[in-house]
Design goal:
The strands form three sheets. A five-stranded mixed β-sheet has the order 7-6-5-8-9, with helices on both faces. Helix 4 packs across helix 5. It is built from nine helices and eleven strands. It has two domains: 120 residues, no CATH class; 126 residues, Nucleotidyltransferase, domain 5 (2-Layer Sandwich). InterPro entries: IS1016-like_transposase (IPR053164), Tnp_ISXO2-like (IPR024445), Transposase_Zn_ribbon (IPR024442).
Length: 295
């Protein structure tokens, strides 16, 4: 997938491109079917014209109707399509994510509707995740997220969710929810996501000691000794977990400042949202098109 730098997608650009529901519906039709394609009923390569009063287009040969929003998150919604598109726009242009309250304010809908829209958009984003194996030099680091309402911070706070991040240097970020930091758990996640033979950097957590035996070139950085990077004379690689830790820092700040609290039940959706933005941040409006196309 091409992730070359795209021009800034401003609010003015958005409303010029999608001034009303008609423009949004036309875009969904273009993305899903195209205005000229083989009709499912008469099989002719036909052009399709807009029908008034319904979200549908008709075949110029036989009149068969095509409903672009059928089978999508937009199918039965009473929320204007432009509001859905603008919500997606906010998701791809913000750094810290979008809360349900913010969507409520921006869209003028109820909080229940805003929350549901946000979760549906996160589902779409999650379905876009790239599952190619990470390779080259990969940084691994686990983190504890949430629990801020318990009044106690740190790893011992109640209600925290354990997450594991994997960042390929010069490549993608991936993050998953894990039940614990036992050796078997970290090993399973690593084997499923990181190509054997890759160089892997971790902190000094004992559970990562298994990686050499699984074919990885493993280097650990003793953070407890205030050491943040270490040169490996065997490979000429500098081991650190700075990139993956930077992701966790942004994620935790965003949870505290934007979402206040994220439950373990929905943590995977928020992780998908933030990793998607991290992996596609140079794409700007192309990131928006990826999500809309996924509907």
């Amino acid at each position: 997938m091409n992730k070359s730098k795209a021009p800034l997608f401003s609010v003015r650009d958005f409303f010029a491109r999608f001034p009303d529901d008609e423009a949004c519906l036309q875009h969904i039709m273009d993305v899903r079917f195209g205005m000229k394609h083989p009709c499912r009923k008469c099989l002719n390569v036909s052009t399709f014209h807009r029908l008034s009063g319904v979200r549908a287009f008709a075949c110029s040969y036989c009149g068969d109707h095509v409903h672009p929003t059928a089978g999508t998150v937009f199918e039965d919604t009473r929320t204007p399509l432009q509001s859905w598109f603008y919500a997606i726009y906010l998701f791809v242009t913000t750094r810290h994510g979008v809360s349900g309250k913010e969507l409520q304010r921006q869209l003028g809908v109820t909080y229940k509707t805003a929350w549901r829209m946000g979760m549906k958009i996160r589902e779409l984003i999650g379905s876009l995740q790239d599952f190619d194996m990470l390779q080259g030099h990969v940084e691994l680091d686990e983190a504890y997220v949430g629990g801020y309402r318990a009044g106690k911070r740190g790893r011992g706070a109640a209600g925290k969710t354990i997450v594991m991040g994997m960042k390929e240097r010069g490549g993608d970020m991936r993050a998953v929810v894990i039940p614990n930091v036992k050796k078997s758990t970290l090993r399973d996640v690593t084997l499923r996501n990181v190509e054997a033979g890759s160089v892997v950097s971790t902190d000094e957590l004992m559970s990562y000691g298994l990686l050499e035996g699984d074919g990885y070139v493993h280097g650990s950085v003793p953070h407890g000794e205030k050491i943040w990077s270490a040169y490996d004379y065997r490979t000429g690689e500098t081991h650190s977990t700075n990139h993956v830790e930077s992701f966790w820092k942004l994620f935790k700040v965003s949870v505290r400042s934007t979402h206040i609290h994220v439950s373990a039940k929905y943590m995977d959706r928020y992780l998908a949202e933030f990793t998607f933005r991290s992996n596609h941040r140079v794409m700007q409006n192309a990131m928006f098109d990826l999500i809309v196309a996924r509907v």
